[in-house]
Amino acid sequence: MKMGRNDPCHCGSSQKYKKCCAAKDDAARAAEVAAQAAERAAEAASEPEASALANAKPSVKRDKMRPMPGNAPLKPHKGAPPPAPAMVRKHAV
Q1: Strand, coil or helix: 83
Q2: How far is CA 14 from the centre of its chain?
Q3: Both ends of the chain: CA-CA distance in Å?
Q4: What long-range pairs does 33-37 form, CB within 8 A, spacing at least 24?
């Protein structure tokens, strides 16, 4: 079962875990996770495929890509009113 922050500390200090050892345990856990991430990064950098994939050109050129169906320009409805004409003076003043 997982220890809660408000449970008594596992070191026997009669304090709550969050007031006693939580910060030390969190720092140790963070250091362990950082070390694992560094190991994974080193392994990925040493693989020859990683650099080949990073330098690969895209397989489809942008000008040959088709537009998505939802991105087509909107067409007016058949029942839509025509656009309003520009304001024109009827009489010269």
Answers
A1: coil
A2: 42
A3: 90
A4: none
Residues 81 and 77: their CA atoms lie apart, in Å, by 9
Q: Which two tokens stand for residue 18?
A: 């969050």
Tokens 């895209």 locate to 58
pTM of the model: 0.43
Structure tokens at 42: 């080193």
* Mean pLDDT score of the chain: 75
pLDDT in tens, 39-59: 988 887 776 664 555 666 666
> Which H or E run contains 35?
helix 22-46
Question: What tokens does 65 get?
Answer: 């890509």
Q: Would you say 6 and 16 are in contact if contact means Cβ atoms under 8 Å apart?
A: yes
How large is the C-alpha radius of gyration of the chain?
A: 33
Can you name the residues that pair with 8 across neighbouring β-strands?
16
Structure tokens at 39: 């190991």
The one-letter code for the residue type at 48 is: P
